Amino acid sequence: MIYLDNAATTRPAESVIRKAGECLTEHFGNPSSLHKLGLEAELYIREARKMIADSLGTEPENILFTSGATESSNLALRGAAAVYGKRKKKKIITSAVEHASVRSTLNALEQQGFEIIRILPDEHGRFQAEDFIRAADENTCLISMMLAENETGRLLPVPEVFRRIRKKFPEIILHCDAVQAYMKIPVRIKELNADLISLSSHKIHGIKGTGALYIRKGIRLTPLLTGGKQENAIRPGTEAVPLIAAFGEAVRLMQNSIPERLEQTQAKKDYLLKLLSDMPEVVLNSDTDKNYSSPYIVNFSVKGIRSEIMLHYLEQKEIYVSSGSACSKGAKSGVLSAYRVPDSLADCAVRVSFSEETTVQELDTLVQAVAEGQKNLIHKK
Ligand code: PLP
Question: What pTM was estimated for this model as a whole?
Fold first, then answer.
């Protein structure tokens, strides 16, 4: 099997599974229980919280566990809008390429009377910090920007926008969806300047069903749920101890190798780009400049062959790629159209996303299979 859909999810690491297993078999107590088993479970959570806090350069009390980045972003945006979006402060600024978890949440807030400004990339498919800054004013309560976009891998100028906004409009709340950047490129609070950061465990060899929200000290959020006192009562409900412990372990495994992996992955991406550039009828949808794109994602279109046809052709050869965001399940990508990719090419988009396990041989096999597909499938449009 050749797995090249790591932006959708990653294979849980062995030590991650072991860690979750410990919490499922021996240390299965409820962390709220006052007896020894409860305390043991609580210690697993404490360890994971510290691990994630350290990786971001913050204090453990600023990390809140959720069921995943979708919940983190819902809590961040709805929770902040409820507190800070009062009276005239109804403007929210975002990019036009956000993941559905942010995009749909902001659509819902729009229905409730918020004004959503969606910033588009320039004609080269790059976001200009200036466009976000220009859109902000004293009526803005919130800015939400993703750091690495999940369909083409483009990087957004979040550190610059947040730094400049922080100076000009210190009262605006700054949220970043860092899911596709975390543990891949450096994500540090000091450089990012965010008030709220959404993270997901299963994108970094953790387990599906848990994520985190960084909340800067002093930021208030209206909880989405009511219940017990867990997670400072901002996110009540018994903590998913095995998943949280596994998240901490995934971070422990990954955090010291970010620069090496970045370099190795860039070399793999460059290799794939070179192979693709030699193929007729293949158009690249990702940015090739490493200053503007993550090395972990390559998006291209094979002219005349619809994404799902190519995807299933590759699947028969046990090569797993994606047609875009896994969450869009074949629905048309608004993200590619934001980059002005014509519909005829967007319909044929293939997303390849790497992990450190990806090899150059696998990329050779992929490109060979795509070329074969091009020959065999062209009449099946
Ligand atoms: N944000 C981005 C950029 C993503 O790629 C994803 C997952 O595809 C999410 C958020 C949602 O994460 P989760 O699956 O943890 O809810």
Answer: 0.96
Do 63 and 185 fall into the same domain? yes
249 and 281 co-located in one domain: no
Give Dmax over CA atoms of the chain in angstroms: 67
State the residue range of the domain holding 132.
14-255
- Helix or strand (DSSP H, E) at 312: helix 307-316
Q: Angle at which helices 14-25 and 241-254 pack, to 10 degrees? A: 150
Protein residue with least CA distance to atom 8, ligand 1: 8
As for ligand 1, residues whose beta carbon falls within 6 Å of it are: 68-70, 99, 101, 146, 150, 177, 179-180, 200, 211, 326-327
By most ligand atoms within 8 Å of CB, the mutation choice from 9, 75, 101 for ligand 1 is 101
Give percent of the chain above pLDDT 90: 94
For 140, how many CA atoms within 13 A lie in the half-sphere containing its CB?
A: 23
Residues contacting residue 381 through CB under 8 Å, at least 6 positions apart: 304, 305, 306, 309
Pick the closest to residue 138 from 161, 116, 94, 171 (CA basis).
Answer: 171
pLDDT recorded at residue 87: 80
Q: Residue holding tokens 């070399």?
A: 267
Last residue of a domain, one of 255, 286, 303: 255
What digits encode the pLDDT tens for the residues 110-126?
999 999 999 999 999 99
pLDDT tier at 327 (50, 70, 90 boundaries)?
Answer: very low
HSE, CB side, 13 Å, CA atoms: give it for residue 312. 7
- CATH number of residue 368's parent domain: 3.90.1150.10
Interhelix angle 258-277/360-377, nearest 10 degrees: 30
Q: What is the count of structural domains for the chain? A: 2
- Shared domain for 313 and 371, answered yes or no, is yes
C-beta separation of 137 from 89 below 8 A: no
Cα–Cα distance between 98 and 151 in angstroms, integer?
10
CATH number at residue 96: 3.40.640.10
pLDDT tens profile 263-274: 999 999 999 999
Regarding whether 163 and 65 lie in a shared domain, the answer is: yes
Q: Are 127 and 95 in contact (CB under 8 A)?
A: yes
N- to C-terminal Cα separation, the chain? 26
Residues 236 and 104 in one domain: yes
